[in-house]
Amino acid sequence: MLSGTSSRRNTFDLTQRIVALQISVRESGDITILDLRGRATISDGESELLKSKLEELIAKGVQKVLLNLANLSHVDSSGFSVIVRVYVSLRDRGGDLRFIRPCGRALTAFNVLRLLEVIPTFGNEDDALASFRPKGYVAQP
Amino acid sequence: MTTKRQSAHKKRILVADDDRTTRFGISSMLRDSGYAVTEATDGAEALGKIRKVNFALAFVDIWMPKVTGLEVLAAARTLPSCPKIVIMTSDKTPDAILGAVREQAYEYLSKPFSPKEAVEVAERVLRQEAPRPIEIVSAKPEWVELLIPCTREAADRIHSFLKKLDADLPEEQRDTIGLAFRELLLNAVEWGGQLDPNRKVRIAYVRSSRLLLYRIADPGTGFRFNKLKHAAVGQPESDPFTHVAVRDKMGLRPGGFGIAMTRAIADELLYNQAQNEVIFIKYLTAHAQDDKTSGR
Q1: Is the peptide bond before B112 cis (omega within 30 degrees of 0)?
Q2: Which residues contact B31 (CB under 8 A, 6 or more apart)?
Q3: For labeling, which of A69, A111, B120, B261 is most exposed (least CB within 10 Å)?
């Protein structure tokens, strides 16, 4: 028999943590920005959702993609695979993929694979957008 | 949206917590999402309602007066129709976590959580089929050993439970260990067990003051690294992304970084000869020294 008192404190995390993946797409000139919020994992098909969205954009001829990973909470092997696949595909077509730096658990996972050393990554959107401009106007990461 | 709401409307959910604020918060969010919600203020009332009403899901707090959440879980399991039960608590002790595993809780929701998270958990749990049981071989905090069916759902459930046993570790270390364990476990159920729910993966979690060890044995025939053209670990360092195109050609789901990630995280990663069993070791030297210093 377990016994004890009820826990009455801190029931709700009011930061409104999002679990499933939400993707918002916007544009800045010829650069397509995807704001990712939530997790990019295999569990509930989030990685497939991300894959579909990116494939749809590439099929429309998008060449320059900026993935905003600042609000990505989790990523696993499947999420990395989708991102790498798009990175390779865009580079093959003369395009490019860049990141706005992840944080928390997602950053830990990216660091494990050292992916941020391969794909250009920036601390904020202004620097990331500037990096797509012709040389001479490139902000330092 | 209409279809989802209509479908959700048919699902009955019980929310049992003696704390009014918690009960009201979760219930309101679930009602707003279209579910039919019943509330219970203690364990005895919860059990009485579970006996009378065919709930699809129940959120049950562990520490309630009269009858605890784990006792509700144990009693409900003996009924002909038992709802999926999500245990809620801020109690992160191994006894509470392992008690929930032992009594076949569907998920363990640690307080604090966002009300939206409760809705997302409900949606996810209700989408999934009735879970196959997880067999408990050992449920000591320092030695947990389980047999789980070869499904992604079971892997995610066990991952959600076991990672909470490491609550005392530094957050980054806990996250990387959890990441590695999940990848190894998904490999075991998908590749070793072919996602066949009738087959089992055996998991051992061993924790000492100086190390954390996972042993995962799958029912498959094993593999060879030099045959893994569809995985990052099988590629030359100069071209680590070749496998992504290979996976596309093979029609495989996105993935292939699991072993590479696990290798980077583990202090030791050992496979048996057939390579259908793996041992993951993480040394906790600094952590153990901290404990010693603090007299733990």
Answers
A1: yes
A2: B37
A3: A111
For residue A27, what is the enclosing H or E element? strand A22-28
Between the alpha carbon of residue B261 and those of residues B13, B32, B233, B248, B258, the distances in Å are 39, 40, 9, 20, 5
Is a pLDDT exceeding 80 seen at residue B292? no
Rounded CA separation A115/B241 (Å): 11
CB contact under 8 A, A76 and B179: yes
B221 touches B276 (CB < 8 A): yes
Give me the number of domains chain A comprises: 1
Q: What SS3 state is found at A54? A: helix
Q: How far apart are alpha carbons B281 and B267 in whole angstroms?
A: 6
From the list A135, A34, A138, the residue with the least C-alpha distance to A86 is A34
Residue A68 sits at the chain B interface (C-beta within 8 Å): no
Strands (E), chain B: 12-16, 36-40, 57-61, 84-89, 107-110, 135-140, 143-149, 200-207, 211-217, 268-271, 277-283
pTM tops 0.90, yes or no: no
pLDDT tens digits, B190-214: 999 999 999 999 999 999 999 999 9
Q: Which residues of A touch B261 (CB under 8 A)?
A: 77, 80, 109, 112-113
Task: Please check whether residue A84 touches B, CB under 8 A.
Answer: yes
ipTM score above 0.85:
no
Instruction: State whether residue A38 sits within 8 Å of chain B by CB.
Output: no
Within an 8 Å CB–CB cutoff, is residue A109 touching chain B? yes
**DSSP label at residue A103:** -
Task: Flag if A6 and B255 touch (Cβ within 8 Å).
Answer: no
The tokens for B58 are 């129940």
Residue at B45: amino acid letter: E
Q: CATH number of the domain at B1-130, out of 3.40.50.2300, 2.30.110.10, 1.10.260.40, 3.30.565.10?
A: 3.40.50.2300
Nearest neighbour of A108 by CB, restricted to B62, B90, B172: B172
Q: What would the mean pLDDT of B165-190 be, rounded to a whole number?
A: 91
> H-helix or E-strand containing A112?
helix A104-113
